[in-house]
Specification:
Blueprint: H1 21-24, E1 28-29, E2 39-43, E3 54-59, E4 69-74, H2 77-92, H3 97-118, E5 131-133, E6 139-141, H4 145-153
Antiparallel strand pairs: 1-2, 2-3, 3-4, 5-6
Helix pairs in contact: 3-4
């Protein structure tokens, strides 16, 4: 499986006005192997002008818990992008399909949990008898909540 970085980052504000300081500090999604945000490059705020104005980081959980991550600073966006690219290629060779699967499962469960709360529903772990009803209408309990989330809601995550 091959993952590619886009040739240029998403550039907003193509017009004459430069982006605001707040907009420049917003993380920019640079690499998206199918559906996983693996890193960002941002213009750093409050940094002396003689220091690296751009910060970059690459990696994602749970792989980053195994120290599979990298970050740094650079004086220009192009230099930060080049360092990011090198780090991503190095890290990509160390990631496994299980790392990507685990990330997707974690994301699906987190999104499901927030959809439950947004619907005013309690998780099975939040009620005394350990049973609840999913926002999709299915009866769930502590023992089968994960399998339900992955089977019924993983594609929508």
């Amino acid at each position: 499986m091959t993952y590619r970085l886009p040739s240029r980052p998403d550039r907003r504000n193509h017009g004459a006005c430069p982006p605001s300081a707040a907009a420049r500090r917003q993380p920019r999604n640079l690499a998206d192997p199918f559906d996983i945000r693996v890193g960002s490059i941002i213009q750093r705020a409050g940094v002396p002008v003689d220091k690296g104005q751009w910060g970059w980081s690459v990696g994602f959980d749970p792989a980053s818990h195994r120290d599979l991550r990298a970050s740094g600073t650079a004086k220009s966006f192009d230099a930060a992008r080049a360092a990011f690219d090198v780090a991503w290629q190095w890290l990509l060779s160390k990631f496994t399909e299980a790392d990507f699967r685990d990330y997707r499962r974690h994301r699906a469960f987190h999104q499901w949990k927030h959809q439950m709360w947004d619907a005013g529903l309690k998780l099975p772990t939040q009620v005394a008898d350990g049973r609840s009803t999913c926002f999709c209408g299915a009866a769930i309990d502590v023992a089968d909540v994960e399998s339900h989330v992955y089977a019924a809601h993983m594609e929508s995550a």
